[in-house]
DNA sequence: GAATTCATGTAACTTGTTACATGATTTA
DNA sequence: TAAATCATGTAACAAGTTACATGAATTC
């Protein structure tokens, strides 16, 4: 359900096409909400039926037509209600098949396990780099677009993502050490 | 798809009813995979059709009949293939509507935001307590059931959960400080 | 005596994923 | 000139959520 409000929230900043919404999700919301492009188009259609957004076709010369979505007053109201009303339970559902495999690690073999955890670590380090790119572009784009006030909140979410990723890397390091010493034992 | 393999993995340890599988998910896998009981029953039914598990009705005097599921050799094979074949992308999908609200924090107001982040912190501290209970019972139950070897891997996943939760609490502390100083500015 | 847990699910609905389709424009 | 990106989706399927149903046994 929150995909809907993520879209509405972004449309509060400015009108956008489905494609642009997808790109914006990828750069600014990827560390808190993953979506597939196909989901965005479906949700936009639904929201149009419910009069939360409207769309305008813009004809461009030499380029494809653009279908630009705007938020309606009704949509704005729905968004504001959502954002202010936090659920009782604030814990995000977890579904991590990597760590589930680790749980059943007996079957994997120590050598293989070591390899996969090292790979995991590298991926997390990659995420850290992506995050610093996102952080930089957050600063630039919010100044450009006159959204300095939003930058504060964006930065809070980036801080949180960074901390999570660093925790993963630390865990990986410790786990690699534990497995190496276990290997030594046998 | 991993719910299926979680169930198969648990059935490798011992035969269980749907209810027991649900309980076991809650105690040992809750920090990596959230499920609803209704999902478990549906998946068990599907797996029975695919001959990955079988079920036996056990009649108890004075109590309800138990429907006990066992893994088949085919199920064991499917599980082992899954556990050994890590996907290319090891990053778990994230869907966190709490932090998404923080992203759109402008609309919320600093006072309210502060309240919600403090509440978030308390919930994470509660999770930490649950985790230490889980850790304790992990040690006890694996000794009872002769699963000392599995305990090592279980502990790895508990370590990871603990690190994540501590990172959340640290973030909450820093964020509370940031918001307080922002409040002071205005 | 009331609430919770044990024990089993079904049905309807909402979300999320995967695969496919089209064709221009831009970059290596 | 080949690959990637821009730009728009649709259709089918898989997975997750919510609400409901039943009723015994146990604990407060």
Structure at a glance:
Chain A contains seven helices and three strands. The first copy, chain A, is mainly alpha-helical and 186 residues long. A three-stranded antiparallel beta sheet of chain A has the order 1-3-2.
Q: Pairing-aware structural class of the strands and helices of chain A?
A: mainly alpha
Runs of chain A in which pLDDT lies below 50 for 5 or more consecutive residues are: none
Radius of gyration of chain A: 21 Å
Number of strands of chain A: 3
How far do the termini of chain A sit from each other? 50 Å
The topology string of helices and strands of chain A comes to: HEHHEEHHHH
- Give the proportion of residues in helices of chain A: 55-70%
The quaternary structure here is homodimer
The biggest sheet of chain A, with number of strands, parallel, antiparallel or mixed sense and barrel status, is:
3 strands, antiparallel
Q: What is the mean pLDDT of chain A?
A: 92
Tell me the greatest interface.
A-B, 66 and 65 residues
Adjacency order of strands in the biggest sheet of chain A: 1-3-2
How much of the sequence lies in strands of chain A comes to 5-15%
The dominant shape of chain A is: elongated
- The number of helical elements of chain A comes to 7
């Amino acid at each position: 359900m929150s995909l809907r409000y993520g879209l509405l929230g972004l449309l509060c900043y400015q009108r956008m096409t489905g494609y642009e919404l997808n790109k914006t999700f990828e750069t600014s919301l990827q560390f808190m909400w993953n979506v597939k492009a196909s989901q965005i188009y479906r949700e936009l259609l639904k929201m149009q039926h419910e009069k939360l957004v409207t769309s305008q076709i813009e004809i461009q010369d030499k380029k494809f037509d653009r279908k630009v979505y705007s938020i309606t007053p009704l949509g704005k109201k729905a968004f504001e209600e959502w954002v202010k009303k936090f659920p009782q339970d604030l814990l995000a559902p977890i579904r991590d098949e990597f760590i589930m495999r680790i749980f059943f690690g007996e079957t994997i073999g120590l050598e293989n396990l070591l390899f996969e955890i090292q790979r995991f670590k590298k991926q997390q380090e990659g995420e850290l780099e992506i995050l610093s790119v996102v952080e930089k572009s957050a600063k630039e784009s919010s100044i450009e677009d006159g959204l300095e006030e939003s930058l504060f909140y964006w930065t809070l979410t980036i801080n949180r993502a960074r901390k999570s990723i660093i925790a993963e890397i630390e865990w990986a390091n410790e786990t690699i050490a534990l497995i190496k010493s276990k290997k030594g034992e046998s």
